[in-house]
Amino acid sequence: MSGAPVRTQGPPAGTLKELSRPGKRAFSLPRLDVPQVTVSAEFARAQAAPLPEVAEVDLVRHYTRLSQMNYGVDTGAYPLGSCSMKFNPKIAETVAGLAGFQRAHPHQPDHTVQGALELLWRLERALCEITGMARATLQPPAGACGELTGLLIMRAHHTTANGVARRKIAIPDAAHGTNPASVRLAGYEALHVPSDARGLVDVGALEKLVDEDVAGLMLTNPNTLGLFEEDIEEITRIIHGVGGLVYYDGANLNAILGRCRPGDMGFDIVHINTHKTFATPHGGGGPGAGPVGVREELVRYLPLPMVERDDETGAFRLEHDRPDSIGRTHGFSGNFGVLVRAYAYVFLHGGDGLKEVSERAVLNANYLAHLLKDALPLAYPQGRPMHEFVTTAKQLKDAHDIRAMDVAKRVIDLGFHPSTVYFPLVVEEAMMIEPTETESKETLDALAAAMRQAAAEAVTDPDLLRQAPVTTPVRRLDEARAARQLKLRW
Amino acid sequence: MRFAPHTDDDVREMLRAVGLSSLDDLFDQIPTSVRVERPLDIVEGVSEMEILADLRGLAAADRHADEMVCFAGAGAYDHYVPAVVWALAGRSEIYTSYTPYQPELSQGVLQALFEYQSMICDLTAMEVSNASLYDGATALVEAVNLARSTGRDRVLVSSTVDPRYVETLRTYGRGGGYEPEIFLAPGGRGGSPEITRDVAAVVVQHPNHYGILEPARELFARAHEGGARAIQVFDPLSLGVLAPPGELGADVAVAEGQVLGNHLSFGGPYLGIMATRMDDVRRLPGRIVGETVDLDGKTGYVLTLQAREQHIRREKATSNICTNQTLMAVAATVYLGWLGPRGLEELGRQCAAKAAYAAERLTQLGGVELLFPGQTFFKEFALRLPRSAIEVRDALIERGILAGVPLADEGGLGLLVAVTERRSREEIDRFAVALKEVLA
Fold it and tell me: Cα separation of B235 and A13, whole Å?
């Protein structure tokens, strides 16, 4: 296999603006059937907005061509570590388009949206069962927003329980960038916790670092190296020992579905990325959804409104009367359309199917790691990977001046989307690989062959890698120029 | 229903390759004390046709804007979504892709976002737009964070800003260390906020929560005299007829972009729009796409100014946002391409004319009057009813009309009515007749 699986043919890609001709139009509106009104000069727009003027056929061909220059999960394997880019079932799109969901107005009264509210209620129950939490808000529209929501809950807990919010949140050095950024937005300082030689939290160092100024700890498990934090009970005990709370970043939940639960490990607050674990399409960067579950004693702080069920009548309602709530974290009730898709995924699989998801995800990662490890060494070879693993191109860099990004770019020419590169930051020349459960053995064999070929060519023909990719609509782009000579609009 | 494509032989062969004898062995490193030894208490998996039946059942329990005539607004509007929008934004090469970290494989999404940023600038007369935020309310939070990053502290918000936006600000303000302060707009618009040296931002919604046009130029000039940033919450579909934020003097313009080709979808996924002046480009949160060239000098697009972002700057980033609402931004781009300048203007004229006609018809009924008489509105207006607005709304739902959104204040008598280009004269007349019956 060779050649990038995106379109390279056809005329050069101009912008829609370049297709614009005065007098062309795509829009059609009904004839105005009420008296015209005039907007007073005080408020009126003086000059028409300089938007492009195109016909509908121009629009269709332009964006169809752009779509052909884009790689999605439907195009092929997408082994971005930490992103869980699994297959997105088509039925999820069908059900999200049902009029009762897609055409429901968010200000409709509760009695007219009983179906939507029941869906949220059932999904919340399932997510709580999966994570071992008491209740969950489905409102945060993405994982990072879930993190901030969880930290604001921590803040409310400490302020209420101890009279002070405390100052610091501990985070491992291998954490996602959103963690420290969320910590600051919640009014806390990040306290960095080192990893040990195993690639796990250095428990001794953690114990020395934390004191009663620490509001909590944020952790993924498995961690960002794809390794299970075996000392998790000790870690949560240490944090609870100083009165802190432990936050589970759900980025890697796909590894443990039905095998173990954050609540049973001692976590107090959990967020879930539905676009990772529950296959809601990532949309080229979003929308996501970042539900947050909490232990019983933190339920009072969850955002408002919450979906409640009247046990006598069975009627569902959006409850706004929650005096201890941290408040609203989204304009309405979150990315409902995404949650419909997550619901479809969870209940298609059921409890048994979700367990199979994590089994196959971990099997795929271990198999791929096995196929790659002599070509691209594992960063932490002594630990068994869970759903993802980190290899390093350090040897190629030292011996042949070939960097992880060069390997990634060559993999593009060999027909695949490459892995995540340069993350986590604690591994030099990191290549972080997550195949997910929906890649077949044949695909993994082909992906491994491509990556092994690229690593071999780094030795035999390094220029091939430095020049790559050559089969894509554009070659390597000048990012320094983009940042220096800002051109952010036409 | 399962989606993992392995055969039983594949599983055996793969286990053998990695030197394990069972799938359970893959999870050996999990301490036994934290394992779940029972099946998850979630019903057994079902087939595709069963999940479809389940979800059809739930969806059928909802009323919706295809079988009710929708006059509800207050931040989410029943504008028409042309077929072309999701025919294109729904192409799976786009909707099943990740954030464009590998630009050579992502030119489609990157160029579409560049076009989105460009069209938002065309629309607003602002100088730069980011590539989307979550929704209008959280975009306002980011705008306030931008204003407060200048070192000033206080945030003054007009009493005519959507209360959901204020609630959202209040939530995140607890982390940011501020409490939004409300200044009164007597008569439903205006007001005279006092801009002291510690005021970071003055927030005005125009058209405001009640649909009324604000004296935005004066309020923004006042903010600037005191050295504060002027933040405008705007309605993108008002800008075919109303002067854009950039001309009114706004420093930061934020909006709910649902109206640009996105479905009502019970409140999300929507689109947070944020545009500023170039002076503030390095304070902008979120992704920004820039044009550049490749090794051969060919034009291409990349994520740029990433030194602002969380994956590079970590705790010093301008925001924690990572996943945004790219797909909704792509839909908005196609939608704005469909409208063009003349469609935008015609749509704005129709909304204004139909809202004016509706207000005229409804206030002819006994006891029904405008909450703020004499004020100019765009596509939405507030009524004072002679009876509980919640009761009236519920009674009208029984007649197939979603009459609007009851206002929290005004003794329960206020009803906010929105009229988009989709509403016909006949539907508005039907609304008036039904309201008359309900009030009789």
Answer: 31
pLDDT tens digits, A276-335: 999 999 999 999 999 999 999 999 999 999 999 999 999 999 999 999 999 999 999 999
Residue A140: asked if its preceding bond is cis (omega within 30°), the reply is no
Q: Closest residue of A to B302, CA-based?
A: A479
Query: Cβ contact (<8 Å) for B26 and A15?
Result: no
Q: What is the pLDDT of residue A153?
A: 98
Is residue B406's pLDDT more than 60?
yes
**228-287 in chain A: CB under 8 A from chain B:** 228, 230, 232-233, 256-261, 264-265, 273, 275, 279, 281-287
Chain A CB within 8 Å of residue B408 CB? no
CA distance linking residue A66 with residue B88, whole number of Å: 10
Closest of A263, A277, A437, A289 to residue A364, by C-alpha: A437
CB A166 within 8 A of CB A158: yes
Of A318, A271, A324, which Cα lies nearest the Cα of A298?
Answer: A324
Query: How close B290 gets to chain A, by Cα (Å)?
Result: 5
Half-sphere exposure of residue A122, counting CA atoms within 13 Å on the CB side? 20
- Sequence-distant (6+) residues with CB within 8 A of B67 are A99, B400
Closest-approach residue (CA) in chain A for B316:
A181
Instruction: Please state the ipTM of this predicted complex.
Output: 0.98
* SS3 state of residue A452: helix
By the 8 A CB rule, do A230 and A200 touch?
A: yes
CA–CA separation, A271 and A147 (whole Å): 7
Check if A162 contacts B (Cβ < 8 Å).
no
Q: What is the DSSP letter of B278?
A: G
Q: What would the two tokens of residue B363 be?
A: 């206030």
Compute the distance between CA of residue B269 and CA of residue A275 in angstroms, rounded to an integer: 13
pLDDT single digits (tens) B218-246: 999 999 999 999 999 999 999 999 999 99
Report the SS3 class of residue B214: coil
Name the packing angle between helices A143-162 and A178-185 (round to 10°): 40
* Residue B342, CA distances (Å) to B241, B269, B331, B420 in order: 10, 28, 19, 17
Separation CA B415–CA B392 (nearest Å): 9
Surface of B (100-129) touching A: CB under 8 A? 100-109, 111-115, 117-119, 121-123, 128-129
End-to-end CA distance of chain A: 38
Q: How, if at all, do strands A214-219 and A245-250 pair?
A: parallel
Per DSSP, helices labelled H in A258-393 are: 262-265, 274-277, 336-372
CA distance A402 to chain B (A): 18
Residues within 8 A of B (CB atoms), A 356-395 only: 356-357, 359-360, 362-364, 366-367, 369-371, 383-384, 386
The two tokens of residue A33 are 């059937």
Cα separation of A288 and A282, whole Å? 6
A214-219 vs B289-293, strand pairing mode: unpaired
pLDDT exceeds 50 at position B426: yes
B151-175 in b/e form (b: 16+ CB < 10 A) is ebebbbbbbbbbbbbbbbbbbbbbb
Residue with the larger pLDDT of the pair B2 and B174: B174
Residue A116: count of CB within 10 angstroms of its CB:
30
pTM assigned to the model: 0.98
Burial letters A243-262, b for 16+ CB under 10 A, else e? bbbbbbbbbbbbbbbbbbbb
Across the interface, whether the CB atoms of A74 and B92 are under 8 A apart is answered: yes
